[in-house]
Inverse folding.
């Protein structure tokens, strides 16, 4: 457990300041120190995988595992590890209940939509998009609804259904 907690703290502490303050992956793209963060994560990638296997694969520390997947998702996406992202995000979803943790579930689902679309797994992406949108409509969060609509539309466009995506984008 100390291993996993130590690496979660390392991921959080070494993340670009703007990303830590806002929690927004967009800040990663804009941050001057994002390359430094990627280098730290690249160096620790095998240890981070081991921590995830222990946390989620063995079910030993679900909370830390979910946090790790949320923080690492941006790194995985921008460094081309989208298949790995999709695998860990799907694993994390097993432990995230839509009733007790709906906002976290929506965030992990929308991240899964993005990763699955990139690797061409449109069935997984569509299923995750539909669930994220359904949960988001019940939440009192414009941000989560907007992100779910955006990712649902993106999935439809990836599958060539541009006309079906337009109403979601307009909403």
């Amino acid at each position: 457990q100390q291993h996993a907690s130590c690496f979660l703290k390392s991921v959080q502490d070494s993340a670009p300041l703007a990303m830590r303050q806002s929690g927004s992956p967009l800040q990663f793209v804009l941050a001057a120190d994002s390359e430094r963060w990627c280098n730290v994560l690249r160096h620790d990638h095998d240890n981070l995988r081991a921590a995830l296997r222990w946390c989620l694969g063995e079910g030993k520390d679900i909370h830390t595992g979910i946090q790790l997947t949320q923080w690492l998702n941006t790194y995985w996406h921008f460094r081309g590890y989208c298949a790995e992202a999709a695998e860990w995000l799907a694993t994390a979803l097993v432990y995230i209940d839509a009733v007790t943790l709906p906002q976290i579930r929506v965030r992990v689902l929308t991240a899964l939509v993005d990763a699955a679309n990139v690797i061409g797994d449109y069935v997984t992406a569509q299923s995750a998009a539909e669930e994220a949108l359904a949960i988001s409509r019940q939440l009192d969060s414009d941000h989560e609804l907007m992100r779910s609509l955006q990712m649902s539309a993106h999935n439809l466009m990836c599958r060539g259904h541009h006309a079906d995506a337009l109403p979601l984008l307009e909403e």
Observations:
- The chain has ten helices and no strands.
